[in-house]
Amino acid sequence: MKRISHWIDGKVVAGTSGREGIVWNPATGEQQAAVDLASAAEVDAAVAVAAAAFPAWRATGLSRRAEVMFRLRDLIDANRKEIAGLVTAEHGKVLSDALGEVARGLENVEFACGVPNLLKGGFTEQAATGVDVYSIRQPLGVVAGITPFNFPAMVPMWMFANALACGNAFILKPSEKDPSTALFLAELLAQAGLPAGVFNVVNGDKEAVDAILAHPDVAAVSFVGSTPIARSIYETGTRAGKRVQALGGAKNHMLVLPDADLDMAADAAVSAAYGSAGERCMAVSVVLAMDSVADALIEKVTERIPAIAVGPGTEPDNEMGPLITGEHRDKVAGYVTGAAGEGATVVVDGTVDVPAGDGFFLNPTLLDDVKPGMACYDDEIFGPVLAVTRIGSYDEGLQLINDNPYGNGVALFTRDGGVARQFQFDVQVGMVGINVPIPVPVSYYSFGGWKASLFGDQHMYGPEGINFFTRSKVVTSRWPDPATSSVDLGFLENR
After folding, report:
1. CA angle centred on 72, ends 200 and 78, rounded to 5°
2. Which run of H or E residues covers position 44?
3. Which of 113, 166, 281, 376 is catalytic?
4. What pLDDT, in 10s, does the model give residues 306-323?
5. Quick count: other Cβ atoms within 10 Å of Cβ 424?
6. What's this model's pTM, rounded to 2 decimal places?
7. In sequence order, which residues have a C-beta less than 8 Å from that of residue 341 and are 6 or more positions away?
8. What domains can you pick out in the chain, each with its CATH number?
9. 281 is known as an active-site residue
10. What residues does 71 pair with on adjacent strands?
11. How many of the other CB atoms lie within 10 Å of CB of 57?
């Protein structure tokens, strides 16, 4: 049985806790590896290594740090198929989707290559007579990233690229469900010339997370996961004096107006709802359809579903793979089987005619007549389930979106530019797509939602990512002639 261990001080280190987790092959339902689960003592040891490595890395010139990022960029590009293969093997998503994940993560490494420009401060000459004032941004020290199972390559790159480029040392705690990608990225960082100890991977579960949050030498924690865990991590980490950004769950709506191209809207809804088996925090899970076009839109979505090829992610013709575990598959299936009892209409039942074998498969599901208060509307299902809620007006749709406790992503499909502009002005959601179903920002903007989708005041990656992994220092400087020095107990004046 393959064993997956930790990466500490530039090498693989076997676990000592005596605890392990199961890494499944989602396409077959078989265990393919065991992963070491770190104890609090093992986390402490990793943090100590990172803390020891930090001063030298912080003192490394910006050009040298950028050079490491450039080398890493080339290595990820050269090994993108191998990285995608690891993602598919442990998460289950199809290879084409995994390659897309790697590409979007790579964008963030490319952004970090510009760190000399990104860390430029400001300078004001002669703020007062003989006085200059300038600002600088400095790294925090040891920082940590806790990442989810659904993007084992992309989300770590969201975090560590900026963190390392800014001069921090980094502890990555990947999902124990698919940890191999993190270890491979650690090897590439070492090949890129990152000094040993600056980047470490600690595999684990709640015990490891709690140890990171409690450790006094961890200055900041970046997290992506469900809202209940995000809230807990934010509250626990900030209580311990840490800087925390915690991205939570979502219930992303897609509002389709009568003037929209319905074929385009149907294509977008199917793509955004069922890609990666719905295991995306930016997946569209609710379509708000105006009454006048709802029947036509549902018909178009329904006719597209049978064409979706569901099966193992390694087979090139498949478009949707399995869910991550059997437990999660059963949970998602429960929402489908319970929908009719809540008053929804099951238009397409994804629990029937699933691919043969013991893999964790579900087929795409389409629900109609879904309303707030139903579990299939209120909960983040995180599976291939698309709900349709019928609405009578634009205002009704906007109200439903703004009333939702989540505020991660939203999409509007229309041909009316005026309505689109008003929508982006009024909607209380952090990422907005206009005729774009999954509006994930490019790397030089920042990713993050509003309301219960984000805890903290800084979004992920991009300029806000640089801000999160650094802190500002303002220096007021004066070089006077000692002969002019005197005691002055008055308040300093800027003259």
Report:
1. 120
2. helix 40-59
3. 281
4. 999 999 999 999 999 999
5. 14
6. 0.96
7. none
8. 2-248+453-475 (3.40.605.10), 252-434 (3.40.309.10)
9. yes
10. none
11. 22
